[in-house]
């Protein structure tokens, strides 16, 4: 099961099996993403960046060191933590590249101890040294109050991010617990609810020696959905070295069984493209969508999307899943009414139908998928832009080519997500 935990954490970065990216710094020092590799003939949507060495998060690890955890257990937890965060990730914040991960450490039993605030650890060596010197023996206390540990994590995050420090970085708290105890002021639910509602992802690992159901049930309530794990197979840690995280992910954790990738998200006002619009936990892509509800010609919409976000472009529909997703985005936006109509990033240019890409990148020829309405495409000498149009009273839309300068409609924009390949300030 520890393998699972590691995979879960790694998934924060490894939302996909894509590694074919390179990136570079533009003149202002921000990281510019390379859009995505072009696989032969088949267009695919961008996957979340998957490079652990470019993980950018603020993390607090909370470890129960009450007697119930056992010396052996706490040592294996130490190994697990460094395996997950000590494999190339830039620890600390003293790098010219803003993509780094700060890691705070809290231990707790009857009381909590802040071992490392968010600024103490500044290298992988620091991480190893601190983790193994602190997490090698348990305390001689039987009490284990989760609320104390989670509460200390909350203050580590508050103090480490005061005055807007790294406010654009996602926060993750990982709790390793051997017991679920607490009533009244030691009830862990209020503090964990507070954290989660402020946007922190809370992951729990039950150190479960004898199938303690109340522990598992309790932690499932505390954790963010899909983020509660158990440590049944604690001795698997050693095997982790050989685990090919990415390939496991691509085969095992593709939809529907996957977690929210903390380090793959969209800016405000943008909706992350996922396998199913209505299922928050469906597989997420490294793609953000935004409906623009000011009527514009196709050509104006093309330029507007490029200006709405750096490297933005009029949205693509490489397959039916993306087509359906964009339609759900429109349906869920009260500015739209039936019949639904919006421009998409397809146009007739250079003798063929081509999809928009970030400015400066070659267009992508349409490949495979199409969903023209009956009797379309019409003569494209003058009708080179494409929009989605609800064709009948059925709640579906299909493609129609239109004059790119005269037909004003709403439109859908697209941009790459913020992830290990793309830092968003
Ligand atoms: C460390 O990262 C490399 C490449 O990023 C990967 O091949 C290797 O399996 C990872 N090792 C562990 C223990 O996660
Ligand atoms: C639909 O729109 C509402 C209101 O803007 C929003 O709160 C909700 O998250 C949207 N649904 C999805 C699945 O994005």
Radius of gyration: 24 Å
Bound molecules: 2-acetamido-2-deoxy-beta-D-glucopyranose
Structural class call reads alpha/beta
End-to-end Cα distance: 35 Å
Percentage of residues in DSSP E strands: 15-25%
| Average residue-wise pLDDT | 83
Number of domains: 2
Number of strands: 17
What can be said about the biggest beta sheet? 9 strands, mixed
Q: Classify the fold: give the CATH topology of the largest domain.
A: Rossmann fold
Helix percent reads 10-25%
CATH architecture of the largest domain: 3-Layer(aba) Sandwich
Please give the count of helices.
9
List low-pLDDT spans. 1-41, 234-260
Instruction: Encode the helix/strand succession as letters.
Output: HEEEHEEHHEHEHEHEEHEHEEEEEE
The CATH homologous superfamily of the largest domain is named von Willebrand factor, type A domain
What spatial form do the alpha-carbon principal axes imply?
elongated
- At the first level of CATH, the class of the largest domain is Alpha Beta
Pfam families: VWA
InterPro entries: C-type_lectin-like, C-type_lectin-like/link_sf, CTDL_fold, VWF_A, vWFA_dom_sf
Keywords: Signal
Domain C-type lectin: 284-414
How does this model look, in words?
Helix 1 packs parallel to helix 2, helix 2 (71-85) runs antiparallel to helix 3 and helix 4 packs parallel to helix 5. The chain starts with a helix and ends in a 9-residue tail after the last strand. Helices cover 24% and strands 23% of the residues. The protein has two domains: 50-244, von Willebrand factor, type A domain (Rossmann fold); 271-416, Roll (Mannose-Binding Protein A, Chain A), CATH 3.10.100. Mean pLDDT is 83; it is low at 1-41 and 234-260. The strands form three sheets. Strands 9, 10, 11, 12, 13, 14, 15, 16 and 17 form a nine-stranded mixed sheet that branches. Strands 5-4-3-6-7-8 form a six-stranded mixed sheet, with helices on both faces. It has helices spanning 2-11, 71-85, 124-134, 146-160, 188-197, 213-222, 245-252, 298-308, 320-331; strands at 23-25, 31-33, 57-64, 101-108, 112-116, 170-177, 201-206, 228-230, 271-274, 284-296, 313-314, 341-349, 352-355, 364-365, 385-390, 397-402, 409-416. It contains nine helices and 17 strands. The protein is an alpha/beta fold and 425 residues long. Strand 15 and strand 16 form a beta hairpin. Bound molecules: 2-acetamido-2-deoxy-beta-D-glucopyranose (2 copies). One 2-acetamido-2-deoxy-beta-D-glucopyranose binds at residues 52, 83, 87-88, 240-241, 245. Residues 58-249 form the VWFA domain. It comes from Caenorhabditis brenneri (Nematode worm). Residues 1-17 form the signal peptide.
């Amino acid at each position: 099961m520890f393998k699972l935990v590691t995979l879960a954490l790694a998934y924060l970065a490894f939302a996909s099996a894509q590694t074919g990216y390179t990136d570079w710094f533009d003149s202002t020092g921000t990281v510019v993403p390379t859009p995505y590799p072009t696989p032969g003939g088949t267009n695919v949507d961008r996957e979340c960046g998957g490079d652990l060495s470019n993980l950018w998060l603020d993390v607090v690890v909370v470890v129960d060191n009450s007697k119930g955890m056992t010396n052996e257990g706490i040592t294996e937890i130490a190994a697990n933590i460094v395996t997950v965060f000590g494999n190339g990730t830039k620890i600390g914040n003293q790098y010219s590249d803003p993509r780094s991960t700060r890691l705070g450490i809290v231990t707790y039993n009857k009381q909590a101890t802040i071992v490392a605030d968010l600024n103490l650890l500044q290298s992988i060596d620091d991480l190893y040294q601190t983790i193994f010197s602190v997490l090698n023996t348990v305390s001689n206390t039987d009490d284990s109050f989760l609320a104390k540990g989670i509460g200390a994590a909350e203050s580590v995050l508050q103090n480490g991010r005061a005055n807007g420090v790294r406010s654009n970085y996602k926060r993750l708290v990982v709790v390793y617990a051997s017991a679920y105890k607490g009533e009244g002021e030691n009830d862990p639910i209020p503090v964990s609810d507070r954290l989660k509602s402020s946007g922190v992802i809370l992951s729990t690992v039950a150190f479960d020696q004898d199938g303690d159901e109340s522990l598992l049930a309790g932690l499932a309530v505390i954790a963010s959905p899909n983020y509660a794990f158990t440590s049944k197979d604690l001795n698997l840690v050693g095997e982790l070295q050989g685990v090919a995280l990415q390939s496991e992910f691509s085969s095992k954790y593709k939809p529907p069984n996957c977690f929210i990738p903390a380090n793959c998200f969209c800016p405000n006002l943008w909706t992350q493209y996922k396998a199913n619009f209505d299922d928050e936990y469906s597989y997420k892509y490294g793609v953000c969508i935004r409906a623009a509800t000011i009527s514009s010609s196709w050509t104006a919409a093309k330029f507007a999307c490029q200006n709405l976000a750096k490297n933005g472009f009029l949205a693509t529909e490489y397959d039916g899943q993306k087509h359906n997703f964009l339609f759900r985005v429109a349906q869920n936006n009260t500015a739209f009414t039936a019949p639904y109509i919006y421009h998409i990033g397809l146009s007739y240019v250079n003798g063929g139908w081509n999809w928009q890409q970030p400015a400066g990148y070659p267009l992508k020829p349409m490949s495979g998928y199409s969903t023209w309405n009956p009797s379309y495409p019409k003569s494209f000498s003058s009708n080179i832009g494409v929009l989605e149009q609800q064709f009948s009273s059925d709640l579906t839309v299909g493609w129609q080519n239109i004059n790119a300068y005269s037909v004003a409609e709403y439109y859908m924009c697209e941009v790459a997500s913020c992830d290990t390949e793309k830092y968003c300030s």
